[in-house]
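Thread: "does anyone have the structure for this chain?"

Original post by V.I.:
We have the sequence but no experimental structure in hand. Need at least a predicted one for the grant figures.
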Amino acid sequence: MIVGIIPARYASTRLPAKPLADIGGQSMIQRVYLQCRKANLLDDVWVATDDTRIFDHVAAFGGKAILTQATHQSGTDRCAEAIQLCCPDAKVVINIQGDEPFINPLQIDHLAQLFANPDVQIATLIKAINSHTELFDPSKPKVVVDKSNRAIYFSRHPIPYLRNIAEQTQWHLHHPFYKHIGIYGYRTHTLQQLTQLPIGTLEQAESLEQLRWIEHGYQIYTNITEHESLSIDTPEDLEKARTMLDC
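Reply from O.Q.:
Generated one for you, tokens below.
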């Protein structure tokens, strides 16, 4: 059984009440939920929230929601509590960002497919970088993978460093670089283990949670996706999403 969990917090520094923001007549969280329901490999979908306003809203449009603690530091922790409350028998959990209203259901299926391999305990998606602007944007984490598409390292800085290519604006033309797409899948028992790990020095340095898992010896398998969705973090992002619907 594969279950999608959508963590959704009401509080947001840059965009308060973000999950309830209206986008073309539907809230952001409703759009995410409905996109997830289109994924063929998800057996169930739940919104995990710490706020009764979001809980009530999801129930009102016919979705499934679970109330979780307000003290969670990450979506991973919220997913771990939610799956124990709503679907303790689930074998795999897919953690879907609650601020991507146009997420492609094929991305979710593409990630879920990795768990046909019994060796996969954690999985995520990556996408090729095609511009130097994106390559040097610290808000877009980069990832290096091995020959089996297992993540070696994530960084906000471009990796690897191309020593023999002096012009950095040309790096992406001489080497395949990948950025991380922030959707995760976990075996349920592995997810519970991850919540018990102490923060490591790599995560502290880069502010990337997945480095904690690598530092403690967990392998993260990846699939390359061609799809990309808009993440909404600011009022400007919200207006961009509304404009996309009007086009």
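V.I.: this helps a lot. The chain is about 30% helix and 20% strand.
O.Q.: and The chain has two domains: 1-103, 118-228.
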